[in-house]
Amino acid sequence: MIQGFEEQTKELNEVERKAAVQIAELLSRAVGKWKVIKNADIRRKIDGKLSSARIRKIIHTLRVTGLVPLLIADSNGYYIAETKAEVELYAESLRGRIESIKQILQAIVIQSEDFNFEKRKYEKVKPEPKIIQETLF
Length: 137
Hints:
The chain folds into two domains: 1-82, Arc Repressor Mutant, subunit A, CATH 1.10.10; 83-137. Helices cover 57% and strands 9% of the residues. The protein has helices at residues 6-9, 14-28, 39-46, 52-64, 84-113, 129-136; strands at 71-74, 77-80, 115-116, 121-122. The strands form two sheets. It has a two-stranded antiparallel sheet. Strand 1 (71-74) and strand 2 form a beta hairpin. The radius of gyration is 20 Å and the shape is elongated.
């Protein structure tokens, strides 16, 4: 489970394991980008009772166990890759997300080091709006 997201990332229960079989069958037919299937479509086809987050957890399980090999996703939904290039593009997308999360982690740790939690204020001076603008633009 992921801290702060326990409900969304807890282990699959019996109902979700049964739904995973249906989802695996649906996704196994989504071969190629033109057969993409959205989370909402999966929810509708399996009865709509599971949340989007739990569908994602089921899909995570199907991916890491290899039950639906080469299952990738883009902004349109999930599908099974047909080419090495599609897998490489998806892997690059994952690396970009990992890097983004690392940047957030580094920033929040540094910010917490500069913050006096007892006094509820920063020990170091916060950047002026002009510096913030120059950093962003």
